[in-house]
Write a structure and sequence with these properties.
Elements (H helix, E strand, L loop, with lengths): L28 H12 L17 H18 L7 H17 L6
Helix pairs in contact: 2-3
């Protein structure tokens, strides 16, 4: 019987392992960067940041808006104005602060 030789095509061959550098057998920086890139490429199951807007209760948000609307009216000296406009302006400001994670419990 004759021995059967395994022939591999050039496309299925893997490149030779990189030779150790002259720095005492440590892998070259090129290899380290590939390892570092592989470690950072792992996707996270959770979002990187969670918005504080999602973490406060509607009652807490309403309280923030109420206090902010009071300070808006106070800034204009409680002169006659539109309280609904004060409330809308306060709500927009509170939502912005929550989205930027600058306000919370």
């Amino acid at each position: 019987m004759s021995a059967i030789k395994s022939h591999s095509s050039p496309s299925s061959r893997q490149p030779p392992a990189p030779a150790p550098s002259a720095r005492g057998g440590k892998p070259s920086p090129r290899v380290k960067s590939k390892v570092a890139a592989a470690n950072t490429a792992i996707p996270s199951k959770q979002p990187a940041t969670r918005r504080k807007k999602d973490r406060i209760s509607p009652e807490q948000r309403n309280h923030y808006v109420e206090v902010a609307a009071y300070y808006i009216a106070e800034r204009r000296g409680f002169a006659p104005g539109d309280p609904f406009q004060d409330w809308a302006q306060a709500a927009a400001e509170i939502d912005r602060l929550l989205a930027e994670n600058r306000l919370g419990n």
